[in-house]
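As the work plan foresaw, our protein records have gained a structure token line. A representative record is set out beneath this paragraph:
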Amino acid sequence: MSWFRRRTEPATPPAHLPNPSEAAVAFWRRWTDLLPTISAALGDGEPHRVENELCDLVAAVHPDLHFSLERGHRAIYALVVSGQEDPRLRPYTDAWMAAAPPEDMIWEYHDSVPPVPDPTGVTVNLGAKRIRLADVRIVAQVTDGLVDVAVFHPLFAELDDAQRRTMTFLPLDVTLGERLAGERLGRVETAAAEPEGTIDLLGLRELVRGLTGDPA
């Protein structure tokens, strides 16, 4: 479950970009100050109360970063700050992760979108539409260690172009994790009709992880 995902858009763009290490230290200092407010908002089921504060906090590290608040895998909550595999942003996410406090029972932290344990159990809400990732079908072709994919969902015909693009890439990220997807996926296409020879998302995960020698 994700309460929100968004690119950071600071109210006032910074005059200059900070040093990654200094920006990371400043982030975690401010995070500690905000944590009681963030925890109260999440506990009340009203994460929107802290969205603007978090947006400004992450944008102070770098305005091109994305972030999300998620249900955690090992803790109750997860904070994800991602550069979406943009090499320009890697120094900032690396510094952010290196300065992060130890995980505890409440919070875990990720510098890229992690895979969910079972993507076929996820349902994505796009406006009034509920889109089950269990219905996603993939055609995958391995070429020189990269996997080219075409993604199909029966509801694609009911979505606009932006929604189809979201639902093309989002299932890949939640299945593989953003970092593995960036490393191992080649060409990614949206299929207008269901192709022959498709696999589901768990089949794609098995295929890609097999290429890395990591079947787990």
About this structure: The beta strands are 2-7, 66-71, 77-82, 107-110, 123-126, 129-132, 137-143, 146-152, 185-190.
